Amino acid sequence: IAILKVSSNLTEEEIRDIYDDFKRQCPSGRMHKNQFLKCSKAFMESEDEKTDVPHVMFSVFDKNRDGTIDFSEFVLIIAMGNKEDLDSRLELVFEILDMSNDGRISYDEMMDFLEITKKYQATGSVTNFVPETVAKDMFAMFDLNNEQKISKQQFVEGCKKSKDLSDFFDSW
């Protein structure tokens, strides 16, 4: 709970309430995508009905690609909407991108995230992008090749220096 409190900016009581509801809906402790999509409507309201953000979020957090997420991953998805300052939101996006959990983002991790995002992007979205271009631009900003990795500090600073990157990653 302590880790989730820090990561999500939720109170212990809110986390326990979410957990109770999660366990009621998912007694196995794993939430399937269709369950997530149904309950995501409550915390991912959007003015654009065509938004595919819930699909992308589920796919990004389903790191082992088994079609389910656990409670901690579910809370972190909810936390995405609770981060108020840009640095905190970018740090959370970094955590999502760091699929290997080594504190650094590889080119492949960046591409995986961007390709998932592109796959579920709403038709006609104004945020049309080329995943390879975004990844190359981010790595080039720090004179890194695709065999090297970006640190959290580099990611946050790089996104803040580039309005396009900042807008792209802050939309999460």
TrEMBL record:
- Which keywords describe this protein according to UniProt? Calcium, Lipoprotein, Metal-binding, Myristate, Repeat
Sequence ranges assigned to domain EF-hand in this UniProt record:
49-84, 85-120, 130-165
- Report a single Gene Ontology molecular function: calcium ion binding
InterPro entries the record matches: EF-hand-dom_pair, EF_Hand_1_Ca_BS, EF_hand_dom, Recoverin
Q: What domain of life is recorded for the organism?
A: Eukaryota
PANTHER family of this UniProt entry? CALCIUM BINDING PROTEINS (PTHR23055), NEUROCALCIN HOMOLOG (PTHR23055:SF178)
The record's similarity note reads: Belongs to the recoverin family.
Name of the protein described by the UniProt record: EF-hand domain-containing protein
Q: Which organism is it from?
A: Rotaria sordida
